Structure formats: C-alpha cells, structure tokens
C-alpha cells in the first residue's frame, strides 16, 4: 500500500504546535498519517501522541504503513473527534496540542472502498459515510428528505445557486439515481452551461451531501468545545479548514475565546499555503490554518 494523501501546511502546522518532546498531542484527523508521523518524530519516549480517525480504512492503512515506527506512545483509535474527551480521559494527563485537518483525504477520494466521495467515480454508489457504522447514506438522504429540505441542504451546505432546480429534478427521478454518475449527469443537465466553470458543477452538491451524511459541522463544534475544555493551559489547538462553512465555525469559536479572555490567537491572520505548495498539491489551495493558545 502506498501513501496517497499529501499533508497540507505540514511545516506550518507543526510549527504552530511548538512541540515539547515530553508533551501530549492529539491528531483528530489521522488520514494517511502525514501530520501524525511528523509530530511523533519530535516526541521522546515520554511524549504521547493519540491519533483519531472515524474511517476504519485510514486506521488500517496507517497501522500497516507505519508498523515499524509505531511504538507504545503512539496510540491510534477509531472514533469521531467529537468524542475527544472520552479518548483523552484514558490517559492521566492533559493534551498540550490538538490538531484537526478537516474534511476528506485524497485516499477517501481516490480509494473510497465504493463510497462515492468523488464526483469523478461514476460507477460508485451514493454512500459517502466516512464511518461505515453510521446509519444514513447519501442516497437515503435523497430519498427521505422532502424537496424543500433537500433544497435547503444544497443551499446551506453547498452554497449551490441552483439548489431548488437540482432538488426538484432529483425528486422527480429518484428511482433512477443510484450511482455517482446518475447524480453528476443530472446536475450537468440542470445547471445552465453559462454557470458551468472549469470546475465540476457537481462539486457543491457532493460537498453538501458529505457534510450532511457525516454531520460534519456539528462534530466540528463539539470537537472544538471538548478540545478546548481538556487542553492544558498554554496548550494549542490548530485547525486547517477547506471551505467557508467550517472556517466560519473555527473563526467564530476562536474569536469568542479571545473575547472571553480564555485564549489568544497565535496568528493575527490565517496561514495559507504558499504558491509553491499549491502548485505541487492543488488540493491545498483553499486551506486555512488557525491556532488558538489557551491562557485560562
Ligand atoms: C484531510 S484528512 C487528514 C489527512 C492527514 N492530516 C494526513 O496528513 O494524512 C481528514 C481525515 O479526517 C477524518 N475525519 C473527518 N472528520 C472526522 C471526525 N469528525 N472524526 C474523526 N475523523 C474525522 C477523515 O476520515 C479523514 O481521514
């Protein structure tokens, strides 16, 4: 098995944590392990790293890929990061740094185990569950949600201008929509050609469905709240976001901590990838890194 995901803002994220070799760190979004391994390399045997991912395939990949490197002080657990307090409470110390590199990994897009995360994988079913123990798949949402709710979902989570037309067409043709290709062809038909830029017109609908299936924004809010609660004084939380919905949540959450005197921002402005990083890894283009330091 080879690595697929290229870690985004890697050096910047590691720098933001100001790693103490004896410290305790939690990577909430293991993925292919890029950020985790870089943290782990900086730890002494007294340091501790816990890496979390809700996707069993990510856990299996990292455990195999890093099998010669993983020691007792690198603990890997399948969970939703919303439950970070439960996971951390098994250890008699408070974390000094927590990172979240949000969204989906390149592995999930390119080797999805038939979950249809990518609008390019025409023959895959509309599933989109990162955690396959979750009950509701993307296709279930298309079936169960009334047209009005589907419109809202595409508008709010996808910021899709043609949400109403797409939702209406989906409901009319629901028995014919089973695969990624069925949905992308429908979107191509519904979105006027003049609005189809060089980017795939289905990308917003796919983003919206993925956010809903995985309840991503609520997990993020809970994950941030619980992370700050368990963090050591002077500890740091660094979050990389990829779209405006998640970035707004992080920005507002951090600003509230600053206003209430509990935290300070490490950077006045967000940290974004360099032109060079974007050239080498176009998926990094929309990334934004924000870091808060807990002072109270
Ligand atoms: C962008 S990737 C992380 C890539 C990783 N930093 C690396 O360098 O390889 C995001 C990962 O977070 C996981 N994930 C997303 N939301 C999660 C959540 N609420 N709880 C746990 N894992 C989550 C996804 O399954 C995915 O593997």
UniProtKB/TrEMBL annotation:
Keywords: Cytoplasm, Methyltransferase, rRNA processing, S-adenosyl-L-methionine, Transferase
Segment forming the signal sequence: none
One BP annotation, GO: rRNA base methylation
Pfam families: Methyltransf_5
Catalysed reaction, written as an equation: cytidine(1402) in 16S rRNA + S-adenosyl-L-methionine = N(4)-methylcytidine(1402) in 16S rRNA + S-adenosyl-L-homocysteine + H(+)
InterPro entries per record: RsmH, SAM-dep_MeTrfase_MraW_recog, SAM-dependent_MTases_sf
Gene Ontology annotations for the cellular component aspect, listed alphabetically: cytoplasm
Annotated positions binding S-adenosyl-L-methionine: 33-35, 53, 81, 101, 108
GO MF annotation terms: rRNA (cytosine-N4-)-methyltransferase activity
Enzyme class: transferase
Cell location: Cytoplasm
Keyword Transferase included in the entry's annotation: yes
EC number from the UniProt entry: 2.1.1.199
Role, per record: Specifically methylates the N4 position of cytidine in position 1402 (C1402) of 16S rRNA.
Assigned protein family: Belongs to the methyltransferase superfamily. RsmH family.
Designated name of the protein: Ribosomal RNA small subunit methyltransferase H
Organism: Candidatus Dojkabacteria bacterium HGW-Dojkabacteria-1
């Amino acid at each position: 098995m080879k690595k697929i995901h290229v870690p985004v803002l890697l050096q910047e994220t590691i720098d933001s944590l100001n790693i103490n070799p004896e410290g305790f760190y939690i990577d909430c979004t293991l993925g292919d392990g890029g950020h985790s391994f870089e943290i782990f390399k900086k730890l002494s045997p007294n340091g501790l790293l816990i890496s979390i991912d809700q996707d069993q395939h990510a856990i299996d990949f990292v455990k195999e890929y890093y099998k010669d490197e993983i020691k007792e002080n690198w603990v890997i657990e399948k969970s939703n990061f919303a439950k970070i307090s439960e996971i951390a409470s098994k250890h008699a110390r408070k974390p000094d740094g927590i990172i979240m590199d949000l969204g989906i990994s390149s592995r999930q897009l390119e080797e999805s185990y038939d979950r249809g995360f990518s609008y390019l994988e025409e023959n895959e079913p509309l599933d989109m569950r990162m955690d396959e123990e979750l009950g509701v798949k993307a296709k279930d949402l298309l079936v169960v949600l009334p047209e009005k709710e589907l419109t809202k979902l595409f508008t709010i989570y996808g910021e899709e201008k043609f949400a109403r037309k797409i939702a209406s067409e989906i409901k009319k043709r629901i028995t014919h929509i089973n695969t990624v290709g069925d949905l992308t062809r429908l979107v191509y038909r519904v979105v006027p050609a003049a609005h189809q830029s060089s980017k795939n017109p289905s990308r917003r609908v796919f983003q919206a469905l993925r956010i809903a299936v995985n309840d991503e924004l609520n997990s993020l809010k809970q994950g941030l709240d619980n992370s700050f609660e368990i963090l050591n004084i002077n500890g740091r939380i660094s979050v990389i976001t990829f779209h405006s919905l998640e970035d707004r949540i992080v920005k507002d959450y951090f600003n509230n901590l600053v206003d209430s005197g509990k935290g300070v921002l490490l950077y006045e402005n967000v940290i974004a990838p360099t032109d060079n990083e974007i050239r080498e890894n176009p998926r990094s283009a929309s990334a934004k890194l924000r870091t808060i330091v807990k002072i109270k």
